[in-house]
Design a protein that fits this description.
With 520 residues, this protein is mainly alpha-helical. Helices cover 78% and strands 1% of the residues. The longest helix is centred in the C-terminal third of the chain and has 40 residues.
């Protein structure tokens, strides 16, 4: 399906000439495309629940245990732009089917990994095929739904399914691990992706760039040389700070990034069109996506610990406690669709993000004595703002790019999401860890080993308290909880500041027009 690309003189956005609205086949195709979205989003959160069982069975070292978690997102984030561009060239549906096949096969192999090294290798391979899935699903929506009003609703459903997967991850993980071995969290890929492999060739039309040009191998190498060290440096910074190799890796990634950008500007048919970033609607929406995800992941990072280690909820019950906020995120992303057709995004997104700022400020105000109900209400407010902002910004990203570059544009959006997830833990998690250590006052009589564990993390303090006797153990837990909540108060203010920055960026850069009923 091709469209004539026009440019709105009022907004500067690429818009499509009016075409027939998608019918039942298009909406059936959307349902099929939601299967890999659901799977990948569940996979982002479910593994952490299986890690204790994996540690008992495979006995990984502490470094191997980190790599079991990190191998997948590191490879995924590094390859998104490459895979999105290859999808533009060779066919987005083709990349989707290759990615689904590979992801299902490797997931099955991961379920029976005999060693930690084998599981790490499988997780890295899953990242390769996962990078084929996500840009393909979002970019195919651009070709299936040429009518902008329909496309906005389709993207809202896409974002809602991603949020639903994040909500289901802890619940699915808890249920599976209560009845099956840890490999079950990997085996669930097969029943989800098999219907996709059968139905996608029947319902999802192929789409590609009609004039892709030649493949530039050096651009692919430079993109990997940019993303791998930057993503890895961010993860290392969260653990080692500036004392480790993170600054060197980050500097190397930036240097390769400069070379990548220079090469793209010289090529007649670049791998990634740098002109896209000169459009305020595109670059502004990317920044909104990035900062929104940082705020969301950072919030989940400290709330999950508070619910489990201070309130005392089980992982399953902690996941259930977060459901209202995730449901609010899903519903708000759908409700905003008709509103976005009438209100400019430079007004709508800042207004939506005001809810998220309010949620963070509530946490900052009552961090030391906030009840479970208050935390749930704060997360609902955060979810309303993020849900609305993500739907509108993702639609702007796709609409700002020419249809033939939808894969690359989707990949940039997905890369912002993955980097935001990493940065949310690294920045807000790192600040929280530093504030926790600064506020921790250990009670007299705590053993040296327990004191060392308590200074590292809240979880370490809770674990160490069990060996200190009932009275001293309770004092240690109370001291750790007080220090953690003090750190949450400061971290929440910084999180609110990031959301304010996202709102300001939206107000200053987004120039999307109000969509009418027709295609734009």
């Amino acid at each position: 399906m091709t469209t004539e690309t026009l440019t709105s003189p009022r907004t500067g956005l690429d818009t499509a000439a009016p075409e027939a609205r998608a019918g039942r086949r298009g909406w059936a195709a959307l349902a099929v495309l939601m299967l890999p979205v659901l799977l990948v989003s569940v996979d982002n959160t479910v593994l952490s629940f299986a890690l204790p069982s994996i540690a008992i069975d495979l006995t990984p070292s502490s470094i191997e245990q980190l790599w079991i978690i990190d191998a997948y997102p590191l490879v995924l984030a590094s390859l998104l732009v490459t895979m999105g561009t290859l999808g533009d060239r060779f066919g987005r549906r083709r990349m989707l089917l290759i990615g689904a096949t590979g992801f299902a096969v490797i997931s099955a192999a991961a379920a029976f990994a005999p060693t930690a090294a084998a599981l790490i290798a499988a997780r890295a391979a899953m990242g390769v095929f996962g990078a084929m899935l996500m840009p393909s699903t979002l970019s195919l929506l651009r070709s299936i739904f040429t009518d902008r009003a329909q496309r906005r609703l389709a993207i809202a459903v896409w974002a809602a399914m991603f949020s639903a997967g994040s909500a289901l991850g802890p619940i699915v993980g808890g249920l599976l691990l209560e009845h099956f071995a840890w490999g079950a969290v990997f085996l669930m890929a097969a029943p989800v992706l098999l219907p996709l492999l059968v139905l996608a060739p029947l319902l999802v039309p192929e789409s590609r760039d009609p004039n892709p040009g030649r493949i530039d191998a050096l651009s692919i190498v430079l993109s990997l040389a940019t993303m791998v060290p930057i993503v890895y440096a961010i993860k290392e910074f969260a653990v080692e700070g500036f004392a480790g190799v993170a600054p060197i890796l980050f500097a190397a990634g930036v240097a390769f990034g400069v070379l990548f950008v220079r090469r793209q500007r010289r090529l007649e048919t670049p791998m990634l069109d740098m002109a896209l970033f000169r459009r305020g609607s595109f670059s502004g929406a990317i920044v909104v996506n990035l900062l929104s995800v940082i705020a969301l992941v950072g919030f989940l990072f400290f709330v999950a610990q508070h619910l489990q280690l201070i309130v005392g909820l089980s992982p399953l019950n902690a996941g259930l406690a977060l459901l209202p906020g995730l449901v609010a995120m899903i519903v708000s992303g759908l409700v905003v669709v008709p509103i976005a057709a009438r209100v400019s995004p430079r007004i709508l997104i800042p207004g939506a993000l005001a809810f998220s700022v309010g949620g963070y400020l509530v946490v900052a105000a009552v961090a030391s004595d906030g009840s479970l109900a208050v935390l749930i209400a704060a997360f609902v407010a955060l979810g309303i703002g993020i849900g609305m902002a993500e739907t509108v910004s993702n639609e702007l990203i796709l609409s700002s790019a020419p249809p033939e570059k939808a894969g690359a544009a989707s990949a940039v959006s997905e890369t912002a999401y993955e980097l935001g997830a990493v940065l949310g833990t690294a920045i807000l998690g790192g600040i929280l860890a530093a504030m926790y250590r600064a506020h921790l006052v250990l009670p007299a009589g705590v053993s040296a080993d327990a004191a060392h564990a308590a200074r590292e993390t809240l979880a370490g303090a809770v674990a160490a308290s069990r060996s200190q006797g009932p009275v001293l153990g309770a004092q240690l837990r109370d001291a750790a909880a007080h220090a953690f909540d003090a750190g949450v108060g400061v971290t929440a203010l910084i999180g609110a500041g990031l959301v304010v920055v996202a709102a300001v960026v939206a107000a200053m850069t987004l120039r999307g027009s109000r969509a009418s009923a027709g295609s734009r």
